[in-house]
Design the sequence.
């Protein structure tokens, strides 16, 4: 019995296989020209799911790197500004010492005072800089100036967010005293108070009142240099935190000589952590916690006697603990021709510079931390891009071989069709 397959069936089956092989060939060619191992998730669901996770990680790292680059720019500008403020403080100190010197007449002292006023204005400008659309020393407020200077009934007054800088002892009591944070990929989390955990993100603004100080200073200790007798040996019990030592010194012919002798003894005991001002006798500590002084516990001398006890004065000076306000007040003292007060302001300003220096060191350390994280995210990005390439990129050598095979199959199928289809049609007609 002869079995004849209908030509329509043969044609449909042939065309189905032809289209399928053409589709495979076109698909492999698309992979080759697009350099992708798959163009639809359905082609490789497992690899597509992994690739999506890798893409999400790449997107996150791109975001972190953008945040880090912005933070790096902010910290570079903050470091530069605070460094310039520190330099201005040093210049102001030198001008104050010059202005407090008795050889200047009143007119010259007034000229120095005008220069010091300009220093205060320069600091205000530095602390009001805008970086990446942020007033970086304004806390969480970007809409208005952080610092400004206005004339008051007793002289010029410095303000922080429209509050006199002397108004609060705690910098966190000023308006907008919080800081803004950015996510740099170290696991930013929210605390129980629905605020960002400071340990999990990077601050990109600063509390200006905390950097430059605020309120009035506490109790201050002065050595009464003018009460010390030339050639007499004295003792002082000096405490720097938990470290307490007794220093021995000899008074000189004048205050400068006496202060020099005291500083030599202080340096032997504490290094450069504490010193005394030559003009005012103010004891200045360069470490947190300050310095305490007493005239007790005088050690015995080799001859069995005790050393004389130096005269000290401890009181609340009422000086501003804010750098800008203290500079303005010192200029006012020179304008009033109060040289002794100007000298005390100079020593107080020198003491305040410590806090600015600590801030500068902190900003510098954070700047290095940002650079470290930029390197870290760059390395992570390279690793993720390599994973993405392994998951998504086609292998040209394999693709070319496969395309050639599929082209051969497709060509052979066309040749087969050239012989098969006419015979099928002839048999059907027959």
Sequence:
């Amino acid at each position: 019995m002869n079995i004849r397959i209908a030509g329509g069936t043969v044609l449909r089956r042939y065309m189905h296989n032809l289209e399928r092989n053409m589709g495979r060939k076109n698909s492999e060619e698309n992979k080759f020209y697009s350099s992708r191992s798959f163009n639809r998730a359905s082609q490789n669901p497992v690899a597509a799911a992994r690739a999506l996770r890798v893409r999400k990680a790449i997107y996150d790292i791109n975001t972190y790197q953008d945040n880090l680059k912005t933070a790096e720019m902010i910290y570079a500008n903050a470091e530069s500004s605070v460094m310039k403020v520190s330099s201005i403080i040093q210049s102001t100190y030198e001008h104050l010492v010059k202005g407090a010197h008795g050889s200047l007449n009143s007119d010259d002292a007034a000229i120095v005072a005008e220069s010091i006023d300009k220093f205060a204005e320069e600091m205000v400008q530095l602390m009001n800089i805008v970086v990446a659309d942020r007033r970086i020393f304004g806390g969480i407020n970007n809409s208005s100036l952080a610092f400004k200077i206005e004339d008051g009934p007793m002289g010029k007054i410095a303000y922080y967010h429209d509050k006199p800088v002397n108004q609060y002892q705690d910098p966190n009591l000023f308006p907008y005293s919080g800081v803004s944070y950015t996510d740099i990929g170290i696991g930013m989390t929210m605390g129980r108070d629905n605020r960002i955990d400071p340990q999990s993100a990077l601050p990109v603004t600063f509390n200006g009142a905390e950097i430059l100080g605020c309120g009035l200073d506490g109790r201050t200790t002065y050595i009464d240099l003018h009460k010390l007798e030339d050639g007499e040996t004295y003792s002082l019990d000096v405490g720097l935190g938990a470290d307490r030592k007794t220093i021995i010194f000899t008074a000189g012919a004048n205050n400068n000589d006496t202060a020099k002798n005291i500083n030599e003894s202080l340096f032997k005991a504490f290094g450069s952590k504490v010193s005394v001002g030559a003009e005012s006798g103010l004891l200045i500590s360069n470490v947190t916690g300050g310095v305490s002084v007493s005239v007790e516990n005088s050690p015995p001398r080799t001859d069995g006697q005790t050393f004389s006890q130096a005269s000290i004065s401890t009181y609340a000076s009422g000086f501003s603990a804010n750098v800008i306000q203290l500079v303005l007040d010192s200029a006012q003292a020179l304008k009033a021709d109060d040289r002794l007060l100007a000298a005390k302001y100079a020593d107080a300003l020198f003491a305040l510079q410590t806090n600015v220096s600590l801030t500068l060191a902190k900003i510098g350390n954070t700047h290095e931390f940002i650079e470290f994280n930029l390197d870290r995210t760059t390395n992570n990005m390279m690793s993720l891009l390599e994973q993405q390439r392994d998951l998504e990129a086609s292998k040209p050598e394999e693709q070319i071989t496969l395309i050639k095979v599929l082209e051969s199959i497709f060509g052979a199928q066309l040749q087969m069709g050239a012989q098969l289809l006419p015979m099928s049609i002839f048999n059907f007609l027959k």
Remarks:
- The first helix runs from residue 7 to 34.
